[in-house]
Amino acid sequence: MEHKHWKKGLLSGFFFSALIIAVAGCSTAQPADKTVEPAKQVATQETKVTQPKVPTMDEVPKGPEGEAIKLGYKLMNETNTVLKEHVGNQLSCSSCHGAAGTDSTSSLVGVTAVYPKYISRAGKVLTIEDRINGCFQRSMNGKPLAYNSDEMRAMVAYLTYISKGVPTGTKERPWVVVNDIPNPPTPNKENGEKLYKQACASCHGADGSGTGPNSGPALWGKNSFNIGAGMARLGKAAGYIQRNMPLGEMGGIKQGTLTEQQAADLAAYILSQERPDFGPKANDWPNGDAPKDVPYETNAKKAKN
């Protein structure tokens, strides 16, 4: 595959923040819905350990290694256009992992140091290539890359590059904030719909179809993540929304001030909409340890019952 135009604008997106997300909205052109109370200030989870310094794209070495890193960076930001045959929606890797994985929203810094790693959803140890392909098949509702392809090698090269300084074999990445509410409150979808119209619709569309993978990603419909993605779980979606949304202040709601109830309401409304299926989903958590907010039944759960 040729990539003739990757150099153009290479650095333009590297330092932007978690504008590119996959869960909630950022603003609305309509007046705030007066039936929805503005959120009160609540404590949010913050990173307790400073993220290791990430080398910039200006520091990329010359030669084949550097070219692979640059291609990997491009693939992170332009996944749905450069790898059309592998992406089944309108999302990029940076839609969830802001600033090509370097933003604290969902940091990938150090990720190559912790793999291979046991993943309970798979019920086995996965390599970093396995994990990348899991995202292609679930979050991007697409097809896996060949493990020996130039594109896979480039993505691994880039992730390894931003993970410099994190020793191989590291078990945990304490600078990564887990966007999750393990026991979310019982959601009110009607209130979630009001909040969505108030603070999310102008970026993500009234119909959830989005305005662009790196500005307002699709939250439901054919161009969004499928039911097998982690973000399709209520606790994960609510946690992401509470910590990151809305950007700035929208509709009278400031970023980081949504309560757990409001975040759960929003997540429930978004996840109640139609989205692509994931065929092999019943094979997930083969050891019967699926979290309670998984929105589908697994074979292991059926066997236990």
Automatic annotation (TrEMBL):
Renumbered residue ranges of the record's region Disordered: 275-305
UniProt xrefs under SUPFAM superfamilies: Cytochrome c (SSF46626)
Cytochrome c domain residues: 67-163, 187-274
Keyword Lyase: no
Signal peptide: 1-29
InterPro entries found in the cross-reference section: Cyt_c-like_dom (IPR009056), Cyt_c-like_dom_sf (IPR036909), Cytochrome_c-type_DH (IPR051459)
Alphabetized UniProt keyword annotations: Heme, Iron, Metal-binding, Signal
The keyword NAD belongs to this UniProt entry's keyword annotation: no
Any one GO molecular function term: heme binding
Pfam family, one: SoxA-TsdA_cyt-c
Top-rank lineage group of the source organism: Bacteria
Gene3D superfamilies: Cytochrome c-like domain (1.10.760.10)
Name under which the protein is recorded: C cytochrome
The species this protein was found in: Effusibacillus lacus
